[in-house]
Amino acid sequence: MKFIRNFSIVAHIDHGKSTLADRLMQCCGAISDREFHDQMLDSMDIERERGITIKSQTVRLEYKAKDGNTYQLNLMDTPGHVDFAYEVSRSLAACEGSILVVDATQGVEAQTLANVYQALEHDHEIIVVLNKIDLPAADVDRVKQQIEDVIGLDCSDAIEISAKQGLGIEDVLEALVTKLPAPKGDADAPLKALLVDSWYDPYMGVVTLVRVKDGILKPGMKIKLMAAKMTYPVEKVGIFTPKTKEVSQLNPGEIGYIIAGIKSVGDARVGDTITEENRPTSEPLQGFKPSIPVVFCSIFPVDTVDYGKLKESLVKLNLNDASFTFEPETSQALGFGFRCGFLGMLHLEVIEERLEREYNLDLVTTAPSVVYKVHLTNGEILELHNPSDMPNATQIDYIEEPWILAQIILPDEYLGNVLKLCEEKRGVQKNLTYIGNRALVEYLLPLNEVVYDFYDRLKSISRGYASFDYQLHGFERNEMVKMTILVNGEQVDALSMIVHKDNAEYRGRQLCERLKDLIPKHMFKIPIQAAIGGKIIARETISAFRKDVTAKCYGGDISRKRKLLEKQKEGKKKMREIGNVKIPHGTFLAALKMEQK
Questions:
Q1: Topology of the domain covering 4-179
Q2: Which end of the chain has fewer beta carbons closer than 10 Å to its terminal beta carbon, N or C?
């Protein structure tokens, strides 16, 4: 066991985690030059295209150190984006140490702080690595000073590397061997293993990734999942090198996968403790907090025939990504669909793109919303995920909305614009400090405002230099109202939303103007209204198609023309009463896209 090292690579987005993982694998000979391609551990197409890591990946490397011993290195490459922080926390729990990668041109960013604090919470030994030192803009001394000032880590022996060029990789491997602690565990004790991740493989069924703490895990054993209270026989035990490779057993301190005939991923809950059925361990391991969805939206198939296919696709996707939730719902405008919960807007986009790409579905998604706590007059508290489920205003005592504590790191010259944006979004400033010529701003912001367009606007006003990270702060009481959209006097539930009272009129007017351009003309006038309760706050009217009924009247008495116009008016009035407004599916999509801009 003293020759095993388990470690994660943590960093901000684009600081070079996946590239460093590639180089470590090459250096240890895990992959031949012929098989090699960039971002080896990013297996999904969407990860490669967007250049981001979404799922944590594991690989076992064999490294012959300078002291002559061969070490087993278990590497976990983690995501950098705030929406996938849940993946990071799971990976860190399976390791004893972390490599903190910092871009020598950019310095410390918001997500660098968040991830390094998570690693310190897990009592990790941290190796500081400065990447991209080959770039002309690299300023190693300034970044070292920044890490010492902001995070408080000693950078006197920080390793300077260029993962792209392959400089300094050998030093990183030596540091892993000499600085990181070996895992602790007892091979003779009852089996105790942490379930780190589970996913569905079409050939092998449910595959679970485990970190063995005590005991030995081998095929033929009967294992028990302690939280799920289920028992299964172990069929196969293996490791990733990064290809799958079967082994005879997993010893204490090792990370690998097991296949045990588990039928559904729901049984293999992340954070569960695996033990032996005949000789169970007395104490389960401390698991993880379950992931809590913060952004909700409804997904409907464009063609109602695809409802069954959408349901099947969501079930399959949920097997590989247990952090999103879904439940069936219906809408008058859009038919049958699902209400889904996500960890953030990027998570929502990724799931939507995977559904469209991997399962060939055409989808309509409604406006994203967050969870509100509705306190009723009878003392009950409702958790509201969907605006159309909001109870009558007379039954509501008050509404609480979720707030987040946001950390924004940005160059000094963009500070004024960013503060203005945060104030506009009803933010409350908590802190403002300087790290060299960069500002670190802490703001309390309502999540409802951040969900729509905050991140995009932050990037555009800071020219991409601002980095943003947040944690959920809690719920606060606020003046929230439900805004409904009426088309020809009928409610369109897909466009209902909960907004702050002060922003309601502006949002209502914006949406009505947008819908006026999107809904095609009919044979009668169509009023589009935004309403709060019984009060109309905005209105637009789509004019009707009109036939020139007076075209054949050459001269003659004016009353003849008037009579024809009156007759036409009566017909239009009657038509409006019995006519249905056909709203194309694309209209919802376009109107909601406007809301997200």
A1: Rossmann fold (3.40.50)
A2: C
Q: Among residues 487, 485, 505, 503, which one has the least CA distance to residue 495?
A: 485
Q: Give CA separation, 131 vs 107, 166, 585, in Å.
A: 10, 10, 48
* Residues 25 and 31 sit within 8 Å (Cβ to Cβ): yes
Q: Residue 139 is encoded by which pair of tokens?
A: 């300023």
CATH fold of 373-478, please? Alpha-Beta Plaits (3.30.70)
Contact call for residues 263 and 206 (beta carbons, < 8 A): yes
The tens digit of pLDDT for each residue in 332-346 reads: 666 788 888 887 777
Given this chain, do its domains 4-179 and 192-276 carry the same CATH topology? no
Total residues belonging to the chain: 597
Options 3.40.309.10, 3.30.70.870, 1.10.3720.10, 3.30.1050.10; CATH of 295-365: 3.30.70.870
**pLDDT tens, 345-400?**
777 877 888 888 778 887 777 777 777 888 888 878 887 777 777 777 777 788 88
* Per-residue H/E/C for 38-82: CCCCCCCHHHHHHCCCCCCEEEEEEEECCCCCEEEEEEEECCCCH
Q: Is the dihedral of CA 457, 462, 465, 469 positive or negative?
A: negative
Helix (H) / strand (E) containing 200? strand 192-201
Burial of 577 (0-12, 13-18, 19+ CB in 10 A): exposed
Give the full edge-to-edge strand order of the sheet including 70-77: 57-64, 70-77, 4-11, 97-103, 125-131, 159-160
Per-position DSSP letters for 112-163, written without gaps between them: HHHHHHHHHHTT-EEEEEEE-TTSTT--HHHHHHHHHHHT----TTPEE-BT
Q: Which of 380, 428, 374, 377 is nearest to 406 (CA)?
A: 428
Instruction: With H, G, I as helix, E, B as strand and everything else as coil, classify residue 562.
Output: helix
> Measured at the alpha carbon of residue 129, what is the angle toward residues 93 and 85, in degrees to the nearest 5?
35
Give how far Cα 449 sits from Cα of 216, 343, 374, 421, Å.
50, 15, 18, 11
Q: What distance separates the 2 farthest-apart alpha carbons in the chain?
A: 112
Q: CA angle, corner 166, sides to 162 and 172, nearest 5?
A: 75
Q: How confident is the model at residue 594 (pLDDT cuts 50, 70, 90)?
A: very low
Q: Which residue has the tokens 């999509």?
A: 589
446 closest CA partner among 371, 380, 343, 396? 371
Q: What value does the mean pLDDT take over residues 400-405? A: 84
Tell the CATH superfamily of the 481-596 domain: Elongation factor 4, C-terminal domain (3.30.70.2570)
SS3 498: strand
232, β-bridge pairs: 223
For residues 289 and 301, give the distance between their C-alpha atoms in angstroms, rounded to a whole number: 33
Contacts of 296 (CB under 8 A, 6+ apart): 339, 340, 341, 342, 368, 369, 370, 371, 385, 386
pLDDT of the residue at 47 = 47
Tens digit of pLDDT for each residue in 464-491?
Answer: 677 777 777 888 888 888 888 888 777 7
d(CA 216, CA 276): 10
Cβ neighbours around 511 below 10 Å, total: 23
